[in-house]
Amino acid sequence: MDYLLTEEQKMIRDLCRQIGEEKIKPVRAHYDETEEFPWEVVKVFAESDLMGIFIPVEYGGMGFGVTELSVAIEELSRYCGGIALALAGTGLGTFPILLFGSEEQKKKYLPRIARGEALAAFALTEANAGSDAAGIETTAARDGDHFVLNGTKQWITNGGEAEIYTVVAMTNKSRGARGASAFIVEKGTPGFDFGKKEKKLGIRASATRELVFQDCRVPKENLLGREGTGFLVAMRTFDASRPGVAAQALGIAQGALDEALQYVRTRVQFGKPIGSFQAVQHMLADMATQIEAARALIYSTSRMYDAGVGDTSKESAMSKLFASDVAMRVTTDVVQIFAGYGYMKDYPVEKMMRDAKITQIYEGTNQIQRNVIGLELIKEAARRHK
């Protein structure tokens, strides 16, 4: 379908496609196997100004929005969802600063991110606080002109590689979710260290680590927004970032379909290409239809968000829910089309299937997305019938 992309959006798409073909495709199996962080490719992102796509011009970025970021993440994820996550994870860590940062905070941190000199990361999840984000146990106690952080964050994307971390901690446990606050913490701050790097099923080119805070003193100037608004910071961040997760899932699905379309034309069984069999054609038709529906939803949601037309919590959750479910269905079916070969590392589709799974889990499981959507629907109905 033609989504009437602007010339700038087409340029971003084409640039990412070129990077994917020339820089990502030849090395994706290597990074998946070794689990190294793909710094060589990330440098290419930086040199191409991709790290600053969504950052305003006045802070050194390209001045675009969630739509352009989604276009870029989709295209890069067609080649490797794990490598693309260096950009997507940085977006997740940067949105809190864009949305809630003071002018001083923006001037201090955004130019470094835009230039690709520093990756960012977002730290909310803990061992006992995943879907229940209000159950976080990391604390931030006020001490003069500082807050002292103690606790451990788990499964943090870009952990250990990023220089700038947005961290949610409890400043007043007695207030529950309203007692959480958000802070900017820089790598190298005394008392801030990293735990183990996780070994994962998929997205193995992305670093996922524990963050450990032991009497880590953070200047009060690093508080994002007001004290007690940490949960709001997280939820508003997800409204902006979930279309990006959806775009990652979409790109993985599209990449898998691309591989399938090549394969069915060349794989011969019973004396003819398997693409001539109706059973295979129907699988391809279902996959293509689901992918296009996901793309339409993601692009519409991204444009809504960028237009500032109102709360997009429901639509962002729908995008993430639908696209990630599509990615899992499509990659599973593509492995089936490849049959025994699909199960082997000789082809990239088994990796795509492994990479797809996380998109149903992180930034809120798809069960949580359904909660968000259902509650928003009920609220809307209540407003209409007042």
TrEMBL record:
Keyword Flavoprotein set for record: yes
Alphabetized InterPro entries for the sequence: Acyl-CoA_DH_CS, Acyl-CoA_Oxase/DH_mid-dom, Acyl-CoA_Oxase/DH_mid-dom_sf, AcylCo_DH-like_C, AcylCo_DH/oxidase_C, AcylCoA_DH/ox_N, AcylCoA_DH/ox_N_sf, AcylCoA_DH/oxidase_NM_dom_sf
Sequence ranges assigned to domain Acyl-CoA dehydrogenase/oxidase N-terminal in this UniProt record: 6-117
Transmembrane segments: none
GO molecular function: acyl-CoA dehydrogenase activity; flavin adenine dinucleotide binding
Limits of the Acyl-CoA oxidase/dehydrogenase middle domain: 121-216
Source species, domain of life: Bacteria
EC number of this enzyme: 1.3.99.-
Entry-linked Pfam families: Acyl-CoA_dh_1, Acyl-CoA_dh_M, Acyl-CoA_dh_N
Keywords: FAD, Flavoprotein, Oxidoreductase
Family: Belongs to the acyl-CoA dehydrogenase family.
UniProt cross-references to PANTHER family, sorted A to Z: ACYL-COA DEHYDROGENASE, ISOVALERYL-COA DEHYDROGENASE, MITOCHONDRIAL-RELATED
Protein name (record): Acyl-CoA dehydrogenase
Phylogenetic classification of the source organism: Bacteria, Bacteria division TA06
Gene: mmgC
